[in-house]
Amino acid sequence: MASELLLLARLSFLIIFTCSSAAPVTPTPITDTLLTQVAGSLQMFVDELPQMPKLLGYSNGAASPKPGSLTIGMYQTEWKFHRNLPPTTVFAFGTSEDAATVPGPTIEAIKGIPTSVTWQNNLPQTHILPWDPTIPTATAKQGGVPTVVHLHGGVHEPQHDGNPNAWFTSHFRETGSAWSKATYTYPNVQHSGNLWYHDHALGLTRVNILAGLIGAYNIRDPTLEASLNLPSGPEFDRNLMIFDRSFSRDGSLYINYTGIVPSIHPQWQPEYFGHAILVNGKAWPFMNVQKRKYRFRLTNAANARYFQLSLSNGLSFTQIGSDASYLPAPVQTQSILLSPSESADVVIDFSTSTATEIVMNNNAAYPNPTGSPVDNLNSKVMKFVNAPGNPRAPDSSKIPASLVNYKASTTDAAATTRYIVLYEYTTPSGSTTHLYINGKRYEDPVTETAKSGSTEIWEVINLTADNHPLHVHLATFQAIKIQQLSNQAQFTSCMTQNNDAVACNVASYLTGPLIDIPATEKTWKNTVKIPPGTQTTVVVKFNLVDTNSPFPFDATTQPGYVYHCHILDHEDNAMIRPLQLV
C-alpha cells in the first residue's frame, strides 16, 4: 500500500510516494575492498570486443531508401560482462529477449529518411537495483519498472522525445502524465552524426541506464560520406560505448544501497563510479586490428565518470567529430576528455605504429576535475592487437584536410540572453542533499521559453566543485567562452540569497582567467562541459544548424523538452528543468 511522506530538504519540499515494488535492502554490506577484489580478479584483454547487432532504420526501396519501422523491447535477461564473471542479470534492449544485448542494437538511419520505433517495456514487477523514492521519481502504483526512451541528440517533436514524465510500465499498464505515444518517429532531418538512445524515466534514469538500457544510433549521409572517404564498413567503422560498473562475487550489478545522507535520501548518492571499465558490454576487451585506418565512434555512456582517453606507444587520435557534428577540419590529439553522454568521432591509423599491442588508457579524476586519481583498474579501457604485416586489402580510405563547415557560431543573431545557474545543496557537514538549476525544482513552472527557430545566449554559471555536462534536448549549441569567476565565495553567497546573477552583479566577478576551448569541441554539440567556478557562454540554436532553417515540425507542443546535467545521479536529484518552445 502506498504511503505519503513529507520531506523537508534544503530550499525544497518534495512530496514522496513509496511503493511496495521497491527493491529490498541488501542484508549484508558490500565493501569497496570486495568490489575492488572482484574487478581485480577479471583478467584484462581476454574478451574480444563485441560488435553490437545492427538494425536498419529504413527500408530499401526500388530506387531509394524508404522510411523504416522497428519494434525494440526492454527485457530482463542475463549478460556476460567477462568470461570469468558469472552471468549478470540486466535490463537490455533487443528485438526479442534472446537477442537483447548490453549495449542494445545499433540503429543505423539515413539523413532525411524517418525511422519509427515502437518501444516495448517487457520488464518485471520489481527493479533489479535499489532506487530511492525520496527524490522526484516515476512511481508505478501497481508495480513494474517505469521506462521511457530518449534519443540523445535527436531532432524531433516533443511527443517523441522521451519526456521524463512520459514513462510507461509493462504493456502500458500504467503511464506517466506526459505519455501519449507507443511509437516514436525520428525524422532524421538533422545533419549526419553519432547519437545514442537510453532510458529517461523521472528519478530512475541512473538505475535504468546502470541496468543496461543504452544503445547507439548513427545517422548517415551516403553522399557526404562518399566524398569524405573516411574508413567505412562494419569492420573499419565501429561504435565504442564506454562505461563503468561494479560487480558482486555472484556477477550481479552493484550500486550502493545506502545514501550519502540516509536520513534525507536513504539510497541516493551524488555520483556512481564502477570499479570495472567496459566497452560494448565487455570488461577491458581487446580488438584485433590491421595496419590501416579505423574509424571509432566513441560514446561515454557512464553515469558519472569522465574519461580522459589516450593511446599507448605514442599513437594519437585524429578527431573528426564531436557529438553529432563533424569538425571543420581534423584535429590530431594525444588525448580526448569525454564527459558523461559526450561522443567523439576519431580515426586511428594503426599503420603508423610498430607496436603489436596498443592500450587505450584513461586518466580522468573522479569526480572530475579534482577527485580521486585513477588506479590500476580504471586507468585501462581496452587493448588493440596490431597484426604485423600489410592489411588483408589495401587501405584506400583517407583523412581529408577539411571536413564540414556548418553555420558559424555567433552571438549576433541572439534573441535572448539567459543566466543558467548550477547549485549544489549540502548539510552543515558538507554532504550533498540535492542539486538544482536556477534554484528550482523540476516540477516548478517552466522558465525557459525559447522561440522555435531562434538563437539564444546561455550564460551558464557553475557554483559547484564538479564539472557538469550540460545537455539541452532538441537544441544544438556550442561554448564560445569560458571565464573563471573571481571571489566565488562572495558571489555564491549573494546568489544563494537572491538567485539573480544580474542583481548580484556577475560582471564584476568575471575577472578570472579565460579557459581555452579545445579545438576538438569547436563545433555544434548536444553536450557541453561546464567547468566549476566559471561562467560558460553558450550559443544555443533552436533550428537546423547545417541549413540555418526552422524545424520542419511543430516543436511548440506539449509536453515540451528538458535540459539537465548529464551526470545521471545529479539529473535524478534534481538538476533538470523543463524547456518549452513557443
UniProtKB/TrEMBL annotation:
Pfam families: Cu-oxidase (PF00394), Cu-oxidase_2 (PF07731), Cu-oxidase_3 (PF07732). Residues 1-22 form the signal peptide. Keywords: Copper, Endoplasmic reticulum, Glycoprotein, Membrane, Metal-binding, Oxidoreductase, Signal. InterPro entries: Cu-oxidase-like_N, Cu-oxidase_2nd, Cu-oxidase_C, Cu_oxidase_Cu_BS, Cupredoxin, LPR1/LPR2. It is found in: Endoplasmic reticulum membrane. GO terms for molecular function: copper ion binding; oxidoreductase activity. Residues 146-222, 278-355, 425-578 form the Plastocyanin-like domain. GO terms for cellular component: endoplasmic reticulum membrane. It is a peripheral membrane protein. Its cofactor is Cu cation. GO terms for biological process: cellular response to phosphate starvation. Belongs to the multicopper oxidase family. This is Multicopper oxidase LPR1-like isoform X2. It comes from Nelumbo nucifera (Sacred lotus). The gene is LOC104598402.
